């Protein structure tokens, strides 16, 4: 069911979804912020850490697909409340981890629920806003993820330094349970629409060339964001010599840039639409620009100072979010609000599962050739994604 809203109240669900995606990333980022601590406290090796990351991304990828279909059936009110409550419990459970296996289990359970917020968010923005404004709405709610990545380094570091690393998982989990209750009480479903189309069967979607033109690029674009998200704190501490406290001071900078990219990228394509450009053309032109500038991140491990590396990663992180917002909104433009959660589920599943594979590749690449090779590999991904986007068929019409 679409949420009930009027023009002056439709930003309330978006604001709550912003808070949900913020906590989503605080819970997720706690692992990478505390990676050095967990290696020491739980005796984790490089391979162990890559297995923990992959355990999260495997369940995340599978449930992205399943969760998108589920949200299209139950609606965003129930979908958001349930997924926020589940991942909050899983995050709190991480405080009980005793070794690599229990840590993998907790992160696997976290990945079961965390992806559902993004199909739900796209569905809410597609139901609440026309193509002239949904890019900005999607950018605002999705910017909560970058805001969470900004908040996470200083917040998690402060909690861990003052109360221990286990509290850094427990406290954000408790906040998530509170947010789930607030969402469920604040958002009310509208009466069912008798003319609303039923979700298209998954196999039917998979037969469409325009669907694959959206899904295939995510196989290459998403792993870049996961690389910065899960491996950047480890790189800054191990290769650039930052302490946990210094990571709290500076580790948020790339994610401020990512936030600017999320909101600005959505607003930019909406601006092109308001000036008369077809929505699909507008999103695709922005994506071309991303493919040109995202490879800047490849130089991050080659520059002489940590400050220069952080600035280069910040520029690349901004581009990853401009890409993510516009390709997600493009899915709603092409398939309409009714199928928006399903298509984002397909895209997210592809990106997350490829991210899990990429994490394993990174462990070998970093061990064999160091971080410079890993950054170079990540820098090549968005141009490949753009080639797939533009080679898998003619431009579809917007809905």
Structural notes for this entry:
- The chain has 399 residues and is an all-alpha fold.
- It has one domain: MFS general substrate transporter like domains (Growth Hormone, Chain: A, Up-down Bundle), CATH 1.20.1250.
- The protein is 78% helix and 0% strand.
- The chain contains 17 helices and no strands.
- Helix 7 runs antiparallel to helix 12.
- It is globular.
- The two termini are 19 Å apart.
- 58% of the residues are buried.
- The N terminus is likely disordered.
Give the helix/strand layout.
Layout: H1 11-33, H2 35-42, H3 46-74, H4 76-93, H5 100-113, H6 117-128, H7 134-163, H8 167-186, H9 202-206, H10 209-238, H11 244-250, H12 253-274, H13 279-293, H14 306-335, H15 340-369, H16 371-379, H17 381-391
Q: How many discrete domains? A: 1
End-to-end CA span? 19 Å
Oligomer: single chain
How many strands?
Answer: 0
The SSE order reads HHHHHHHHHHHHHHHHH
CATH class category label: Mainly Alpha
Instruction: Give start-end ranges of low-pLDDT stretches.
Output: 1-7
CATH A-level architecture = Up-down Bundle
Helix content: over 70%
Shape: globular
Gyration radius, in Å: 20 Å
Keywords:
399 residues, Growth Hormone, Chain: A, mainly alpha, disordered N terminus, 0% strand, single chain, 17 helices
């Amino acid at each position: 069911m679409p949420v009930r809203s009027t023009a002056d109240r439709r930003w309330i669900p978006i604001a709550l979804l912003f808070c949900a995606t913020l906590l989503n990333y605080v819970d997720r980022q706690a692992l990478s912020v505390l990676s050095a601590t967990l290696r020491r406290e739980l005796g984790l090796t490089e391979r162990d850490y890559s297995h923990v990351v992959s355990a999260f991304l495997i369940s995340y990828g599978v449930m992205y697909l399943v969760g998108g279909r589920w949200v299209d059936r139950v609606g965003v009110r129930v979908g958001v409340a349930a997924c926020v409550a589940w991942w909050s419990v899983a995050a709190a459970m991480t405080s009980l981890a005793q070794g690599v296996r229990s840590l993998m289990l907790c992160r696997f359970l976290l990945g079961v629920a965390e992806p559902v917020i993004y199909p739900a968010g796209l569905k809410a923005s597609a139901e609440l806003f026309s193509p002239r404004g949904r890019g900005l709405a999607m950018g605002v709610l999705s910017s909560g993820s970058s805001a969470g990545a900004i908040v996470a380094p200083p917040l998690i570091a402060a909690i861990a330094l003052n109360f221990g690393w286990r509290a850094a998982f427990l406290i954000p989990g408790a906040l998530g349970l509170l947010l789930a209750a607030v969402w469920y009480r604040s958002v009310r479903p509208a009466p069912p629409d008798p003319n609303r189309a039923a979700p298209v069967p998954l196999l039917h979607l998979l037969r469409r060339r325009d669907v694959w033109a959206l899904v295939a690029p995510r196989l290459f674009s998403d792993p870049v964001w996961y690389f910065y998200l899960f491996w950047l704190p480890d790189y800054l501490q191990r290769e650039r010599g930052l302490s946990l406290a210094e990571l709290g001071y500076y580790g948020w900078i790339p994610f401020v840039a990512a936030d600017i990219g999320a909101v600005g990228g959505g607003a930019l394509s909406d601006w092109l639409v308001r000036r008369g450009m077809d929505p699909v053309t507008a999103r695709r032109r922005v994506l071309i620009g991303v493919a040109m500038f995202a490879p800047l991140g490849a130089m991050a491990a080659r520059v002489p100072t940590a400050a220069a590396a952080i600035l280069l990663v910040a520029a690349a992180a901004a581009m990853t979010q401009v890409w993510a917002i516009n390709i997600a909104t493009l899915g709603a433009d092409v398939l309409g609000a009714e199928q928006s959660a399903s298509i984002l589920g397909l895209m997210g599943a592809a990106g997350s599962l490829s991210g899990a594979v990429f994490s394993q590749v990174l462990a070998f690449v970093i061990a064999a050739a160091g971080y410079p090779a890993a950054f170079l590999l990540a820098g090549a991904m968005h141009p490949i994604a753009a080639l797939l986007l533009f080679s898998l068929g003619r431009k579809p019409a917007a809905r």
